[in-house]
Amino acid sequence: MSEPKAPTPAPGDTYKGWLFKWTNYIKGYQRRWFVLSNGLLSYYRTQAEMGHTCRGTINLATANIAVEDSCNFVISNGGTQTYHLKASSEVERQRWITALELAKAKAFRMQAESDDSGDDSTSPGGGQGSGSRNSEVQSTLRTLGSKVEDLSTCNDLIAKHGSALQRSLSELEGVRLGGETSEKIRQVTERATLFRITSNAMINACRDFLALAQAHSKRWQKALQAEREQRVRLEETLEQLAKQHNHLERAFRGATVLPSSKSNPAIDSKGPVPVKGDVSDEDEENEFFDACEDVQEFITVPADPKYHRSGSNVSGISSELGMDDGTTSLDEQSLGSNPESPQSREVVPVRKRRSRIPDKPNYSLNLWSIMKNCIGKELSKIPMPVNFNEPLSMLQRLSEDLEYYELLDRGAKCQSSLEQMCYVAAFTVSSYSTTVHRTGKPFNPLLGETFELDRGQESGYRSLCEQVSHHPPAAAHHAISERGWTLRQEIALASKFRGKYLSIMPLGSIHCIFEKSNNHYTWKKVTTTVHNIIVGKLWIDQSGEIDVVNHRTGDRCHLKFAPYSYFSRDVARKVTGVVTDKDGKAHYVLSGTWDEKMECSRVMQSSRGGENGTDGRQKTVYQTLKAKELWRKTPLPEGAENMYYFSTLALTLNEPEEGVAPTDSRRRPDQRLMEQGRWEEANAEKQRLEEKQRTVRREREREANHNGSPAEEVKEPADKAEEVEIASEPSETTYKTETLHGSHPPAYSSGHQDNYKPMWFERQVDPMTGEPTHIYRGGYWEAKEQGNWDSCPDIF
């Protein structure tokens, strides 16, 4: 017996609602939010999870739908996925069954049509062909309209005759056997005949309508697809023309040798096509993210409309992100010629960088096969294979902080320090975007190892990293741009292994100095957590707080990286922040995610009185203008999942280059062998380099002892920075894993034990932070120009 059907959604609509899903015998049925769209049935724990966390999806094209009882039904794809579902009522269950059947039929039909490539198709012609197609469409629509009217008429007749037949049957049941019986039976027979005739007419009309729709649907779909493809081609052509146009503008400005003060303001106001990190006009209508009550301490609401009017009392607001001191707004800045850089330059062909590396081999790793060979050995001597690594060194990973250098280029052009702070804050967040899928461990640098990143032609900056200490491990980094900024840092990493996860705490400060304004910014990095170390799939999260401080003006940006929570209703990997001046007044609110984008909103007014936070205090309510995009992550290259999830920049970091120092990471043999997929040879070469470094270290210690300055004895771990220590207490076992700089104190908090003097950096006390740190002392790029590397040690 078929059950009565409730009103159903249209076949193309998305159907949503709550259902109870069987989980296990302990929890039983649990309430879940289900979404039916495009032939896929997905479910979420709550409606808020729809944006980021899908709990499961089943394709209805190959699924079986079975009804168990009045409220229960089962969906299975014949494999591993089976959903036992229960609706709140029989009517609700029937609505879902009908919607699922319609979606299944549509998905099956679309799948069959996509596989059917042998159908004939007519290519669109010129104007005459277009006119004939229009007339054909109009004629078809009129025919379909008439068929719909026939269906409506038949429907009315069926309803009328059906009611009459029902009355006759009711009367027949109440008639006693006698003379009236034959007359009543005759009437029933006549009405049943009328009903049958009408039903046949209805069926025939439906058949004609279906045949006509099927005959034209494929042609319309192909015509629509052709229009879409033509539109995409036109958009790509326009984008290419716009890029060529702006490239010619930049070339023209460089060739005319005009001072920036006399340059054409119309050209300067345009600037080139926005690149990574530019403010996007596409997001004009994007509202600012609402605050998460468990993480943020403030709430944002749209500003009063008076702030959007051109006659506002706030001077200098020429757009939604204008400055209150009359300076240039974020979306008005020109990315054209930099007045600090040379305005006349020869056009030099830019080197074509590689876009692929050999695919990662699918080698299985058995942890027991590693540990069984280490029985009886000293734990600090256990060698770690390259199977855990990625073919980049930590110095190269440190250089990846410059992936979105354009943010600092734009910050260098800012007239306002508060506006500049927004770009610096976005830059600090962007450095984490490459880590979301990068679960491989970078190679630990050898003492004295260097890495240069010379992007002077393409991007206007040069970068140099050097491993300046090994006990404790520390790496120094210095980058300078001809567009008016300098970035330097010395980083050490303390790590704690908690069993299920590994926490990595970067130690040391990062400095960014802008030449034009003399603004000096400092900040520290947040904690990186690697989850599922023992069992499960590795995944990475960033959490903590960052204070970006402008030491010249006192401006500050407080950023919060919200840790991932399974129960959180907010978007995953969220970052929020507030830019304040030296008096604590808020000027900008920042929001976004560290793996996708950052936006900022201009604060028009702030007040207390929002809902109470977790500590009982009232939250600050900021009235803001619409959000503007500061930075957006560049999509990973095609096939990145087979290339260690490297970004476009990361793919080029280990590309061989002529003229680099002999200590450069590109010349490291074990790293090169791993990149080529020769992992067994890489492991053997890695052990050779480790033993060579231990020998050099012992030689250096003997020399120091002979000269009367004995070095402190420190055990040398197998991988230079990977060791496991077992506590003496039998009841307490502590694992300490060092990825680059271990759990030792940072370089600036204890004396160096290596008796090693770096080649290109020297140890000084930083005047801003008061911390001992390594600062670039010069000479590297001059040595490269001369080709003189005689002073470099032989570390490989």
TrEMBL record:
- What Gene Ontology terms describe where this protein resides (cellular component)? cytosol; perinuclear endoplasmic reticulum; plasma membrane
The GO terms this record gives for MF are: sterol binding
Q: How does it sit in the membrane?
A: Peripheral membrane protein
Q: Which InterPro entries match?
A: OSBP_sf, Oxysterol-bd, Oxysterol-bd_CS, PH-like_dom_sf, PH_domain
Q: Which GO terms describe its biological process?
A: lipid transport
Query: Where does the record place the region Disordered?
Result: 111-140, 259-284, 304-354, 656-751
Residue ranges annotated as coiled coil are 217-251
Segments of skewed composition (Basic and acidic residues): 664-705, 712-723
Arranged from A to Z, the UniProt key words for this protein are: Coiled coil, Lipid transport, Lipid-binding, Membrane, Phosphoprotein, Transport
Q: Where is the composition biased (Polar residues)?
A: 326-344
Domain of life, per lineage: Eukaryota
Tagged with keyword Coiled coil:
yes
Compartments annotated for it: namely: Membrane
Its primary localisation, in coarse terms, equals: membrane
* All residue ranges annotated as the PH domain in the record: 12-105
Question: Does Cell membrane appear among the keywords?
Answer: no
The similarity comment for this entry is: Belongs to the OSBP family.
Protein name listed in UniProt? Oxysterol-binding protein
Organism, as annotated: Carassius auratus
- Which gene holds the coding sequence for this protein? LOC113097589
